[in-house]
Amino acid sequence: MPGGNWTEVGQSNGVHSSNCHLRGRGLSSRESEQHLDKEKKSIAETKLLKKHQNRYIGKKTYGCDQCGKRFAQSRSLVTHMRIHTGEKPYGCDQCGKRFAKSRQLVIHTRIHTGEKRYGCDQCGNRFSDSGSLVNHMKIHTGEKPYGCDQCGKRFARSGTLLAHQRIHTGEKPYGCDQCGKRFALSGVLGRHQRIHTGEKPYGCDHCGKTFAHSGTLVMHRRIHTGEKPFSCDQCGKLFAEPGTLVLHQRLHRGEKPYGCDQCGKAFARSGTLVRHMRIHTGDTSYSCDQCGKTYTHSGYLVSHMRIHTREKPFG
């Protein structure tokens, strides 16, 4: 019986069943095909909508069996699993460094090409990826959205907060395989290892001098450009480096965070504390090559040398 045959085919193949059903309603072959195309399009759109909802409305169907973290897309889970397996399938053909994500490789290759497509409209500093620009902008805005739940100190970057929290925990999970020194952050370990390898991948296009760290190159370039993008909101004085601005601002606030554990005297700069400590330790690292006299501060040695050179800088 034709009806029985049609039902049987319909159960095994939904698309063919719909086609037969449409013809049964008196539609021509062309009309039924057009109607079927519309049904297919509707099904495809429904699948796309479901995928979108899974991603943006919060349904996370794919779970990591190592740490329990969940994801809306299977490919996100696959990428995440590389944290646990240590797999790094993407390799740089310039230096051999490997990465877990293709995006990380793309950003890394800009070190070699020198490409910095993201520019700060405040100071002109340029970056190879948008995330670095976003973090940099917090220097200008003063935004510090990340707070430490131990001491309340706030930070512009989540990574800086993570590093800070390890002051409280004492955790240093990253170890150098050359000297055994340990670090709180993997990035700091990477920079440290350049001491052993001698690698200086960042070159100045003005004088050719090379540097181990990109940040050092950025600051060095300001010697050539005379750029001082960081200004004090109290007195208007300009600085080439944000760290120097921070130190300067302590003069206005009277802040002296570095205290001597021997006598309690406090200082605005860590370097000043180091020099002060030599009074207690008796360390006289600076010696005159003319007469052998030693000093605790380089400034004292410079003043002493004028005895030999007969220099009178204030005459």
TrEMBL record:
Gene3D superfamilies: Classic Zinc Finger. Residues 1-37 are annotated as: Disordered. Residues 8-20 have a biased composition (Polar residues). GO terms for cellular component: nucleus. Residues 28-37 have a biased composition (Basic and acidic residues). PANTHER family: TRANSCRIPTIONAL REPRESSOR PROTEIN YY, ZINC FINGER PROTEIN 143. This is C2H2-type domain-containing protein. It comes from Umbra pygmaea (Eastern mudminnow). The lineage of its organism: Eukaryota, Metazoa, Chordata, Craniata, Vertebrata.
